[in-house]
Sequence to fold (665 residues):
Amino acid sequence: MYRILGSFALLASSGLALAAPSAVVPDDHYRLADVAEPQFSPDGAAIIYTVTAPDRDRDEKTSDLWTVPWKGGAPAPLTQTPEVSEYGARYMPDGKTVVFLSDAGEKKDGEDEEDDSVQLWRMSANGGAGTRITSLPGGISGYDLSPDGKFAVVVAEVGKTVGSKAKTPPPIETERFYFKQDGRGYLDDRTQQLFIVDLATGAARQLTQGARDHWRPAWSPDGKLIAYTAKDHAGDKTLNSEIYVLPPEGGEPRKISPTANADDDPDWSAGVSWSPDSRRIVWLEGIEDKWLYYGAPHLAVADVSTGAVTRPAKLDLWFYYPRFAPDGSILAQIEGDRDTWLARVDAESGKISYLTQGTRFAYDYAVAKDGRIAVLETTNEKPSELYALEKSGARQLTDHNPWLKDRALGETRDVSFKSGDAEIHGFYVLPPDYDAAKRYPLVADLHGGPVYQHSHEFDLDARALAAAGYVVLKINPRGSSGRGFDFSRAIYADWGNVDAQDISAGITNAVETGIADANRIGVGGWSYGGILSGYMIAYDKRIKAAVAGAGVSNIFATWGVDMYQREYILELGTPWENFETWKKLAYPFFEPERITAATLFQCADADDNVPCVGAEQMYLTLKTRGVPTKLIVYPGENHGLTVPSYLSHRIAANIAWYDRWLKAD
Fold:
């Protein structure tokens, strides 16, 4: 285990008085930088990573590449391009060149317009001008390098309209069951295929074929095989995806994964990892399809030559990003109750040794050839930064949000309470000037998922709410992750029941312990948090104000409209066969007389995850019944908002709504 030794010091002249810290405000979204994608240099002396930051003038986020020495020292930018992004960088084997993804435009021969699709680029490891390597139609979404640095295997779409710049787009035609995906839109004949790219010439050769999507390729250390995950379009009705290996020269793919369950589902953001000797691979293996995200995936290790599969450390918890370390052990992040820690797993015995501890959330990590580890993690007080893990402790390497030193942050206080026969956990985010002698307006912040949880991580929106004078209660009701399968599946096909009970019990606990004013209770959330907000306003009459973001109450309205066709059938059945189940889950829509809380509905205009129809129907329902309500739509955005002004506007609008209904005299 490692403890945090310290962070960057804020130096000030002894002759100058430090200004008092100011409150977190919605416009701090224009300041918040996000650190991601750490990768070691071949000699382990440096780490390259991505920093995504907002540009107020252009009102968008762009990414740049940075490096930081392992031994310590000031991080330095490799790219500074405010109008384009660079990300996903990796060092070439000689350490002198880096390869990365970029949407920087470049004109093709004979064309008037720049091709601004995402392509593979290279540049000196010391920075400077980049050179584009690939010109694949439609761009690429992922890649891996061959061990000798001569080739890359990339993921690119193939289809009739891929790369088309026709002034009038052709009609969309599809015969797929899974025909829509947030961020990709309607899914037609397009497939995600693997290509082998010659890094010297940029020439690309298609490696895989057929009506099958392929993603997250990983080249074996000996260069003989490429492992990847794939899913057949013919299997659209299931979640089944498989792990394959294939020689880079081509041939018939060989399936490695033995079950009909999901393997390295793309939503898990994980990929296959090779052992140093190229004999084994590790990946995440899901459980039976019917349990969807309620059941945690576990580690699966295959002997590539024999196909034998073992499952070390089969915990009742979620694993993330498993990778082989140089010594043959497996590194992975393990999600527990409100915290996610980095761990080392013995590939033979399954013994687990945690490498981080405490109230923190490990987002990612990098491991060098000599075994040294850098972890990317966040706490309640700090956004994600890179730390060097050493025997003496964790040494902070980066600090990309120094402005937070000038912000006053209140206490974050863990809480547990009983809800029926269940023990429920969560925590409060308190105002910076919190006075225990006072009772405060309370906002219960409801997380998405539904199988997710509030963790000990930096949350700008919660801090802004607390700075505005609210106690923010983050409850992990039944249905949340971090506490095992039975806890998660307690809401299976039964949304808005025990999870609503648990939120209500948390509100009661906050009132009975003297923290919350019983007459000033609000709730709010996005995605399933917005759905649960809809349940809460119909469940608990104490709630006076709510914000339901990207939610839905009449789930009949999203059948065939959102991207969850498979999940609906697996969990609920079809609406015509299991009508009563669907109607039960839609009780806020069918029993609107239960709702009196003033409710702000929000949605993203291009969201295929939870489309605006959910917000629009409930807005009109409350409007018809004379219940105070408002609708905000964010144009052109998908499920997760990215436009800085919209992020700032959303939390400002939430605060204004709560102020209007919870603070009015």
